[in-house]
Amino acid sequence: MTSRPLASGAAAPALSVAAALVLSVAASAAAQTPEQQAEARRLFERGVQAAAAGDYAAAVLAFSRSHELCPQPGTLKNLAVYQDQSARFTEAYLSWSELVRRYADVVSEATLAEARQRIADLEAILARVELTVDVPGAALFVDGRELGPSPLPEPLMLEAGPHVFEARLEGYEPSRVSRHLAERANPAVVLRLTPIVAPPSVLRVESRTVGATVSLDGAPPEAVPLVREVEPGTHQVRLEAPGYIGETREVTVPESGEVVAAMDLAPVAPPPPPPPEEPAGFWDGPWPWVIAGALVVGAAVTTGILLWPGDQPDDGLVVRIR
Fold this sequence. Notes:
Elements: H1 12-26, H2 34-52, H3 56-69, H4 73-85, H5 89-103, H6 109-123, E1 127-133, E2 139-142, E3 145-149, E4 156-158, E5 161-168, E6 172-173, E7 175-181, E8 188-191, E9 194-195, E10 201-206, E11 213-216, E12 222-223, E13 226-230, E14 233-240, E15 247-253, E16 258-262, H7 287-306
Parallel strand pairs: 1-8, 10-16
Antiparallel strand pairs: 1-4, 2-3, 2-5, 5-7, 6-9, 10-13, 11-12, 11-14, 14-15
Helix pairs in contact: 1-4, 2-3, 3-4, 4-5, 5-6
């Protein structure tokens, strides 16, 4: 990436370190613990040593961590200076802008003038991006670095080159846009979030029973198999078929899930068959009565044969039929 030289030149870092040391001692720290203040001081001194050795990347890291632990205008100024020296112009712009916005009534006029000059120099080489998202409250990111929630209070000042813009919000699909920016460009980047549609809750009723129909939650019966999107929770499933014993079952369907209710009905038991008829025997038929009648008649005839016409029967004659 090409960029114009910054106004302060190569001598600015050493002067800024000296000034920052004075500022960091003079400014009052926020409510940090003694341990945090001691660690912030150690990191600040490490940054000074790294800057003196020409290791600007290490200086940026040390000053950044020190300012996070114990915000100080001097630490922030040194961070901005060595971000400039490391060609991290977007970060430098943010640091110089924060120095003016946050510590304008604390730093010296010379430091304030230097910061404003740096901001003007950087605005001349950076792209100015209007980043918006259609859902407020979404977390915005540029090149993986979080910027804060939407909407942003001001445009983004970014270095020329490729950048990735992203918006994230719970319940929405992340939105991501890649753009290649030119120096002093002023593009508008719009991110649109799409709500995540949760999979439906589905109830599937299956049966191997021929002619089965199913009634769901008391609705009219329908043919099986039945597949239906339902509300999560417990549902009543009634399965019936001609010649089979109906069955009612409660089925619980989870949210964004599918449940298969496999139901087979038992056939209705047929009535027991009548007992088989036994063939009629001799004594069960009419023949014993016929024979008995014949014997009686025969006996009468026999008796009649023993008496001649005009004879009187003997009083002692007794005819017995067995």
